[in-house]
Design a protein that fits this description.
455 residues; mainly alpha; Amino acid/polyamine transporter I; 18 helices; 78% helix; globular
Length: 455
């Protein structure tokens, strides 16, 4: 392969990579989305299918992305370009790198808006806004937040600034240090909330709901939802894992590191589910399948009517913000790596420029909830359109092409040099999965994501 010079620093240790990659994977999907889709799809049976999808389908593609990064030693755009040249693969595979960089920025644009909601709710919890509140008034507070474009822009801007400040400081003093602080803090807060759920909520009912084997409530649609979420939650297709693979120390083992990331990511989702449902089930007026409003309407009602609820409600929304923060820095990093390599930008200039671009695009998502609420493109408002294009098309398509590229196009010797010494048994199981199981599963995700909207 031509020119494998590494333009970038390496993580200071194996655990820095694991924490950074886990930080990328652990985000709003774990704490906001997973509990409500579990609630909508029957709980325990859904969780079992979700875990199987993580192990059999999502982790093999994650291993593939990290391995590509280690092989190319560059940003996703340049890594894919070099690997195509060395493998005589078709130039159309170049779209992998560009989609990863583009998807990361697009997701960050609306991710900052949603994370801004969590920042706003920290203030509400501290000020006592939700004390003894009912569902109707909690809904009005959320609706008023969405209608106030200036307030949304303020919180969006604050969160984007938090993200840019971290990435400006580079691999170890920025991303690595943030991961070493944010991830342990996130777990400490989660455990604290779990203890609160045990003392003040109904943890036993939450445990039964999340881990009960009620396969009668499981549908094929729920299986596809589990598959799609397993794919999304590990940051697959965004270029983040490929970029983080570039920074991985040379002596690190890919399989064990990726497995640890998958375990931490799933653990956060399950604990978050226990926390949320233990609080939800103690309040009979709140439905476990309350949908996206579960976090921003139902939970504030529950916290506001529990002993010590405002304190732990504050902790909860700090937790949500930390999870979003750890993910947002990975969404912008692939594009920063590309500008540093190919456009000779300093990290400072690349971070500021890309942060500003994501912020500008994010204004479209802000306006989708107020002044552009009635403006539709193919039935979507701006926020819904960006979410649909990234989550339903760009990420699965990128993952599919990654599986095909590394499973069928790149020379086997190059892949074996990276993975075979880790564990021969795991390598051959992974190779079979990445060639056959993962592509078929991702095609199912693509069809599931696109067909129902246009059928």
């Amino acid at each position: 392969m031509k020119n494998t010079k590494n333009f970038h620093a390496s993580w200071s240790s194996r655990w820095t990579f694991i924490l950074a990659a886990a930080g990328s994977a652990v985000g709003l999907g774990n704490i906001w989305k997973f509990p409500y889709i579990a609630g909508e799809n029957g709980g325990g049976a859904f969780v079992i299918v979700y875990i199987l999808c993580i192990v059999i389908i999502a982790l093999p593609i994650m291993v593939a992305e990290v391995t590509l990064g280690r092989m190319g030693k560059k940003s996703p755009v340049n890594t894919i370009r070099d690997l195509i040249q060395s493998s005589d693969a078709h130039k159309s595979f170049n779209i992998i790198g560009w989609m990863g960089v583009s998807a990361g920025l697009l997701i960050l644009s609306y991710y900052a808006v949603i994370a801004g909601w969590a920042l706003s709710y920290i203030e509400h919890m501290i000020s006592g806004t939700f004390h003894n509140i009912n569902a109707e008034n909690a809904g009005l507070i959320f609706d008023n937040l969405l209608k106030n474009k200036n307030e949304l822009i303020f919180w969006q801007s604050l969160f984007m600034l938090m993200t840019v400040i971290v990435v400006i400081f580079g691999i170890n003093k920025g991303l690595g240090l943030a991961a070493q602080i944010l991830m342990p803090l996130l777990f400490i807060l989660l455990i604290g909330l779990l203890i609160f759920g045990y003392q003040q909520g109904d943890l036993a009912k939450a445990f039964s709901f999340l881990f009960g084997f009620n396969f009668e409530s499981l549908s094929w649609k729920a299986v596809l939802v589990a598959l799609g979420h397993a794919f999304f939650t590990l940051s697959i297709g965004m270029g983040a894992m490929m970029t983080y693979g570039v920074y991985m120390p040379a002596d690190s083992r890919v399989f064990s590191n990726v497995l640890m990331v998958g375990i931490l990511d799933t653990l956060v989702a399950l604990i978050a589910g226990l926390v949320i449902f233990s609080i939800v089930f103690v309040n009979p007026s709140i439905e476990s399948s309350a949908g996206p409003g579960l976090m921003f309407v139902s939970l504030p009602v529950a916290f506001g009517n529990m002993l010590g609820g405002l304190i732990f409600g504050t902790i909860f929304f700090v937790l949500v913000t930390l999870a979003a923060w750890s993910s947002s820095i990975s969404l912008i990093e692939p594009a920063i790596a590309y500008l540093i390599e190919s456009r000779k930008c300093t990290r400072l200039m690349a971070s500021l420029a890309l942060g500003f671009i994501a912020w500008i695009i994010g204004l479209g998502s802000v306006f989708s909830f107020n002044i552009w609420a009635e403006e539709k493109i193919a039935g979507f408002n701006f926020f819904e359109l960006i979410d649909f294009i990234t989550a339903n098309i760009m990420l699965p398509l990128s993952g599919l092409l990654v599986a095909i590229l590394i499973g069928w196009k790149i020379k086997s010797k190059m892949v074996e040099d990276q993975l075979l010494s880790d564990s021969p048994r795991l390598f051959f199981a992974w190779k079979w999965a990445i060639k056959f199981i993962s592509p078929l599963a991702v095609i199912a995700v693509l069809v599931m994501g696109i067909y129902p909207r246009f059928a």
